[in-house]
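Quick board copy: two proteins, each given as sequence then tokens.
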Amino acid sequence: MNDSNSLDYYKIVGVSNQADSNEIRTAYRKASLKVHPDRNPDDPLAAEKFLKLKIALEILLDPIKRSELDLKLSIQSSKAKRDEKLNSKRKTMLKDLEERERSFQKDESEMRNKKMKLDELKLAGARLRKEKEEQLRRSEVSDSKSNQPEFNASTSTAKPTTSTSNPTSQPTTTATIPSDLDPLNYTLKLKWNTKHLPKINTTETLQSFILSTTTLSSNEIESILMKPIDPSRPENLNKDIKLTALVSFKNLESFETFSEVGSKDDRWKKFKMTKISDLIDKGS
């Protein structure tokens, strides 16, 4: 059976710790009617409850035992408050530690993502530059062939040329791209949040937005590269997602037309725009 170390006899009787002896007796009589075994034959714990009630009455009516009880209850109350305060501090410390860990992991992840994106931009830029160089080289070869003089049969008996140059040793020219032909100079990196622009989440919606806010036609946009939102994932519907796209224009004139609108039109204020060539120069 539990002793006074683990029982609050004030609660058993149903009085406060300020109750006098008359209040205690009155409360005891009312409580005894509820727990007396004769009145509760179906309650198997009725006898134990009634015995505890009698012990409680005895302790509360004895000044010395009641003082000891008050002291024990006071110590228990103080300990409970200390434990609660300590638990609160522990929870705060644990929460702070978890937040620091999440922040560190987020920073580390952002650094990795930035490096990966920069590497991707460099690869994309190198690919665009190589394609343009190849295109320019083919154009120069075609122009060179079209400018060669036609062979005249009537001159076939002429004296041999005095030139000693070897046709196989003619210097070759390396195609270099002028700045207005370098695709990196008219390719933009766009960044935006779906929270501010929820309807722009695919290459189609982005291209439609570009065409509706500028005088450009669709054939003036060379390509748009981006990873669209997966609509099949419910968590993407109300989530604020950061999107990135690479928009390559047909030529420098188209790029400048867009840039002029983008810098003045308020509808483009929610986008962050950066020229790819600037990003690669900074990262190299």
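And the next:
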Amino acid sequence: MSFRVRIAIAGAGVSGFATLGYLVKSLRTVSSAEVTIYWLQPPRKIQTKNLSLSQRDRLTQIEDMGLDPNQLLGSGQVYHPAAPSLFTFNGDSAARGFNFVADRYDTTDYFEWIQANRNLLADLYPDFAPEKGQQRHPDHTLDDIQGTTPRGAYGLYLHDQFLALKAQLPKHITLQVIPEALQRFEQKEQIVTLKTRTHQLSVDYLAKATGPSFARLRDEWAGRVFNAYPCDRYGHNLPPQVTVVGAGAAGIEVALHLLHNLSIEQVTLVSHRAQSRLPQTEPTETYECQWFTRENMHLQPTARNAQTLLKKELEACYQACHLSYPGWDALLNIADYPSFLEDYLETTNQSPNHPFAHLVRPVMSFYTQVKDLLPQVDQIGVLHLINQVKPLFATQSRPCAELMLAAIAAG
């Protein structure tokens, strides 16, 4: 017996493409279903007057390839090829594969795509190609999976994977791309009605994948305050001194773009939390938790006990790593973050067997492990505990951490 399914996806960035891919994968063998997928994405009007010469050249090359930079699917704002090539992306820790045709979701698939398109990418992003002699950082290279690659290159990879997926759609799945934004929607009983500028659609399911909400900018800030993405909304008309709110990867990348491409004299980075994520390391030795375990929580299932156990575990792990334990209060309230980050980089450069590296998985999965043991009030308490220590375990690429330290030192 056949049946009909209508699905709409609003947003054609990474989340939207991932949703599309997993839907196609799940419904590929359900040949009794007549599936229609509507993918909503308004075209991007790129403000070329705000782009650097290298960015304009890159857009011209992309157009020469037969691609419309205003309507690339899969890249979204953050990974759009119009982004400055200094907007680096760590290939090892974050750039997962989205090869739905080959059923591969590992970083290696992305890296192999880079190598298969190496000559093209070297022309598009010469500061990531060593042979071009334009590298700004030794880890900015197309040849090292442990290093960094341009965000725009990842966006082109995602668009390539979309084209491959579209070419391999089974007959019972129809994909219709609507180049318009979702304006509003409402649900009545089992039907969702959605409205775009020229369309009104009735679907069974709506997946809203329009990305994170940026801060709302006040009207009186026009021309002086911008969101980081899309980067073509601001250009050479900026003042000589600029403040960037956010000192993580995006903040650093925006600062580099301002300094190198837009000739801004001084950039001040202001962190939301007065600290940056620590670089990712993989320990080479094993470590088994002695205190911070489900078994010990079972004996006393309270948030207070979770904190006691974590304190003991940290001290034990520091001892096992032959490092001096700074104490609980010192870890939660870091007085001198640049010195703390510099010490961490130096320590992990000598040995990846650091307490934070050993405990990242036990700590970040702890709430899920013990949730069923806890009364509701203690569930909230354990979540608060994990959020307190989360900055010690949230990781980024090592080059990004080094750039953060350099930015602090320069600042």
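Board note added afterward: The radius of gyration is 24 Å.
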